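[#protein-structures] MJ: dropping Triosephosphate isomerase here for a structure pass
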Amino acid sequence: MRTQIAAANWKMNLTLQQGQDLLSDILSKSTSVREGHAVIFAVPAPYLQAAKEIVGDRENVYISAQNIYSKTSGAYTGELSVEMLKSVGVYHTLIGHSERREYFGESNQFLAEKVDVALANGVTPIFCLGESLEIRESGNQNAFVATQLEESLFHLSEDEITKVIIAYEPIWAIGTGKTASSEQAEEIQKFLRDHLAGKYGQETADKISILYGGSVKANNAKELFSQPDIDGGLVGGASLVADDFVAIIDALN
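AK: finished. structure tokens for Triosephosphate isomerase:
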């Protein structure tokens, strides 16, 4: 059984006090996370240690970085290394979010280097991919996300690929209020799993959690998560509202 995951991406939002209050509120309302489920909070870098302290030793609840660099140390002012993450007890990171690709020019090849350094250091990558509205309207979304998979992940071994969480996020549905229908989301998530199966075999592909990210809300999470190839969500705006994110956690299969 694949792990079902509710992942929060706070992006560049909240002060430290607001973040601490939000996290404490969510954890007080969702006091335990069932076996086979995971809840992950991708918080701004200055808050990683404080968030980790609030989570403490709760089972199946994790703190994640929103980004890492492809080197473990060096003269890279402003960047965040896996060694820094591990030093504060954080073992997850987003890699390749569409905003990193769009605003900071991160290529598939560069993201492959980030994936490699994360896995080599025991940090779980939450690898993001997805298409723009233009690509979706042209009907080329499958080929586009296949290339993202191939160029960033298909160099990995069978064992390594099972340690990656994949998050499909249609760029046209991020923060726009538009959401892919559950059928649209399932169609491309199944395509991703089938493409993984073509490379690594069905048994391996069936071990990989593939999340949906694109205006996931409390009122649509249950329908989205009921699809056979959607293993939870990567949640933006709704993760900043305690009651909404708790409802999304509760919607996990």
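MJ: nice. The first helix runs from residue 16 to 29.
AK: one more thing. The chain has twelve helices and eight strands.
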